[in-house]
Amino acid sequence: MALEFVPTAIPGVVLVEPQVHRDARGFFLESYHAQKYREGGIPGPFVQDNHSHSARGTLRGLHAQNPNPQGKLLRVIEGEVFDVAVDARRGSPTYGQHVSVVLSAENMKQIYVPPGLLHGFVVTSDIAQVEYKCTAFYDPKGEFSVAWNDPDLAIPWPVDAPVLSEKDAKAPRLAESTERLVDFA
Questions:
Q1: Which end of the chain, N or C, is less surrounded by CB atoms within 10 Å?
Q2: Distance between CA atoms of 21 and 1, rounded to whole angstroms?
Q3: Residue 119 is a catalytic residue
């Protein structure tokens, strides 16, 4: 299978299906190549790498950052997650819409979520380890959350009662967060 960059229903959100070389020893894949990814619609540059470890049912999100919005390139190195990107850019033709994908250590897919979108995931395996690259540094003063279960977003999460941080449990709906959003360019 060749490296593929698959566009989604939200322009700029790209699903990456890597080229995996398997043999009796295991596998090898190129998890990032600046030139190839740029040509595939993932501009970078990336300035920070993050790694999370979470138990089944943990939902991290929906998060964004403004100022200094972050683009994120995510992959799962252990377990499985249901990953979601929500277009929260004021003036975007796909504002309020979401795309979701299952990312796992097994399928080795990646997703690129451009700056200005909300992002979140829920762990659907016993544990999951997620690694992601960011296009801007984390800014705790700029970070904000939107309710994972906002009825206006109608995201079909595969959990009813996720494990949430205190911040995410108290997050407002998207309609109550408009002053925090990035303008569509």
A1: C
A2: 9
A3: no
